[in-house]
Amino acid sequence: MNPSPPALLQRLLLHRRFIALAFALLVLLRLGAIALAVTPTSDADFYYSRAASLAAGLGYLANDGHATAYWPPGWPMALSVAFRLLGTSIWTVGLANLAAAALSGWLLLDLARQVTGSESAARLALLGYAVYPNAVLYTPLALTEVFYTLLLLASCWLLARPGAWRTLAGGLVLGMATLVKAQTLIVVPLVLGIALLRERPILPRLPRALGRGLAVLALAGAVVLPWSMRNERELGRFVAVSTNGGITLLTGNNDSARGGFTPEDPVVRALDARRDLTELTYDDAAKRLGLDWIRAHPMRFAVLMPLKLAKLWVSDGEGVWAYETGAKHYDARAFLLIRAANQALYWAVLALALLAIPLTLLARLRAGGGAGLGAVDWWCLPYAIAAYPSAIAMVFSGQSRFHFPAMPFLFMAAASAMVFWLERRRAD
Q1: How far apart, in whole angstroms, are the C-alpha atoms of residue 141 and residue 404?
Q2: Residue 400: what are its φ and ψ, rounded to 5°?
């Protein structure tokens, strides 16, 4: 009797060469994107230029030559190391991101084993992320997303396991991640909270969990502190990471706001037109205007929250945009097909990740002869990580690229739902 399609797929997932094949796909597809030679534009051009300046020993400077902290420095710092080693070029950007993507794939695979409790699901999550078009398209871009995703995965991989050295390494990695995205430390209570709540009794273990959390935060702070002190020295005020928080708040909370980024709002334009502001006073003014608008329009602020979430989560595939203006071999029809395929895969991943919630809870309820297992365990991690950009977006604004670092985690959840279905089909 021939094996059923679910049985064949399970056999394929567990084949001894499957992981090597998945990694080969991950690398080859990204090498193809790198070969398109995308010229840095907009934010990517800023990061590229700052990394080149650091590699040349000129410091972290704005375009007019003055010291700046407008953009977080973590990615330009890391990229500048690659520039020193391999030379300043778009090819170095691609190779640096390729290395980050390959490491992310390994971390995804190993962390997915813990999150899903299934080798098949972990391998399927790796395959999904390997061929995920938006992740492929980001590889040659001098943007933060690929590098930050690596740091986020590494942080969770370290914090989800006990041990002094993992606490030390987790704090240091989180510090670097904070220098890339200032809000990253929100991840610490999310991951350690799951670690605490997944086992009983909770109260006797609470002091140790709090101590570990404080240690991680202290280590991360130690990584960030030299940059903060540099800002005080160069800018005249202690700035923890960056000075763009005010304008980020204002561009998502104004009369023109519809959930997304609105730099065309008249208040924003009027602020940009002022020439009497320094970088710090510009940030102060933008923050004040944003907060004043929220206080004056509390209901409108609340109504914007679901719109911001929609802007964050509904669409995907924004990696295509950089190719429209920066790729030497851009074909509009080919990239439209890629965007359509990507969007279909993305929606499927979101739907499966949502389906995994009741499936997992039901399976845990039935486990142990009816006694059941606790509702909270590592399977919650993908949803906690997805909640992190969601909470930030509801206050500031929703942009699809902000969900990029959560996608490896959502592939884990989606893969668990797929494997659950495969196992049910085999049982039937």
Answers
A1: 14
A2: -60, -30
Alpha-carbon gap, residue 416 to 422, rounded angstroms? 10
Q: Which two tokens stand for residue 2?
A: 């021939």
Measured between alpha carbons, how far is 295 from 303 in angstroms, rounded to an integer? 14
Q: Please write the tens of the pLDDT for every residue from 34-70.
A: 999 899 988 999 999 999 999 999 999 988 888 999 9
The angle formed by the CA atoms of residues 225, 240 and 173, to the nearest 5 degrees, is 55
- Contact, 112 vs 8, CB < 8 A? no
Q: Is the dihedral of CA 172, 178, 184, 189 positive or negative?
A: positive
Question: What are the tokens at 292?
Answer: 């004043």
* pLDDT band of 242, cuts 50, 70, 90: very high
369: left (phi over 0), alpha (psi -120 to 50) or beta: left
CA pair distance 170, 352, nearest whole angstrom: 30
pTM of the predicted model over 0.85: yes
Residue 394: both structure tokens together:
């509801």
User: How far apart are the C-alpha atoms of 398 and 389, rounded to whole Å?
Assistant: 9
Count the alpha carbons within 13 Å of 69 in the hemisphere toward its beta carbon.
29
* CB-based burial, 290-307: b 16+ in 10 Å, e otherwise: beebbeebeeebeebeeb
| Residue written as token pair 């991943």 | 349
- Amino acid in the structure at residue 86: L
Tell me the per-residue pLDDT of 373-382, one tens digit each, with 9 for 90 and over.
Answer: 678 999 999 9
CA dist 173 → 153, 185, 203, 287, 326 (Å): 10, 11, 28, 29, 32
SS3 393: helix
Distance CA 390, CA 271 (A): 27
Report angle CA 24, 25, 27 to the nearest 5 degrees: 65
Percent residues over pLDDT 70 in the chain: 96
